[in-house]
Amino acid sequence: MSTVLETEEHQALRAAVAALGKRYGRDYTTSVVRDGAHPRELWTEAAKLGYLGVNLPEEYGGGGGGMAELSIVLEELGTAGSPLLMMVVSPAICGTVIARFGTETQKRQWLPGLADGSLTMAFGITEPDAGSNSHRITTTARKDGEDWLLTGRKVFVSGVDIADATLIVGRTEDARSGRLKPCLFIVPRDAPGFGRSQIDMELQAPEKQFELVLDDVQLPADALVGDEDAGLLQLFAGLNPERIMTAAFGIGMGRYALARAVEYAKTRQVWKEPIGSHQAIAHPLAQAHIELELARLMMQKAARLYDDGDDIGAGEAANMAKYAAGEACVKAVDQAVHTLGGNGLTREYGLASLITAARVARIAPVSREMILNYVSHQSLGLPKSY
What we know:
Layout: H1 8-34, H2 40-48, H3 67-79, H4 86-101, H5 104-116, E1 121-124, E2 140-144, E3 147-158, E4 165-173, E5 180-188, E6 194-198, E7 209-219, H6 231-267, H7 279-307, H8 311-340, H9 353-363, H10 368-379
Helix pairs in contact: 1-3, 3-6, 4-5, 4-6, 6-7, 6-8, 6-9, 7-8, 8-9, 8-10
């Protein structure tokens, strides 16, 4: 893929991460999934090379870059067949929120570890009865003297089993109005009353999914991230990076699948010429390439806007990038499997499992329909139906 729009530093980062990814590749990820393990070796090496914390402030051990750099890391690891989903969560969402809104103590406690990979943080927002409607979140925090008591349930929380803490989106009561407002809390993994159970997923991924039960989890006052009154602002500051990184995840996966299909189409001969010479095979692959490139352009725009501090502009672009990448990823994977025919469904070629994985980019962290709602309301000014 062309990189002429990127700086020399970005091109060098892309090449270096691609080389790291190549040493691990799809076989590594497949073996980790088969063994029920975690991609610790890749995570540790990526951290040691400074890739995991490339977006975090230098004064706390990070690389001093932004979402532009972090999205390159995830995209290239995905293109090599070994994406790290927890990059979306730990440095991108949690690291960003703490770097922007955390107290000095919280920054010192968490950011160096998130940057060097020695600490991992999960993120809990989705609830069984709320789905995409964050206004229906029922996890609530109430004051108990100086402390907080947190009660509620969360679902589809990635990597809780390996996370040192989970950043939980709850709600507190506004003393003036009595209305509930969003707030973010850091909940340590061993906090009493903090229970987890693994969700049995068809999805084959190294990262496990969990349901959380918070039963009057007692938290000190400093578990609250930032200002109690800025909860919504803080939440969206974390969700834009989440969308940018989900786009990177989808683009990487789509590029991996497309490369496998192109390789196959160049060498597979059924008649006289390789099957890639036939337009029925070549054109859909070309189309998939175009759509992945377009999605990447929007992702780069979103990262640039976010890194420049334009949260509103980044909100629109990040949603569009996530939408475009999800669609492009699903189409690329589908076309790759189809190009290989029966071989596309074999374990040997390793593409069939991506059919399920590709759907993640359409469904999570927000469905494509909710993105269309966002664009129709925010960008086009159309009225809401809800």
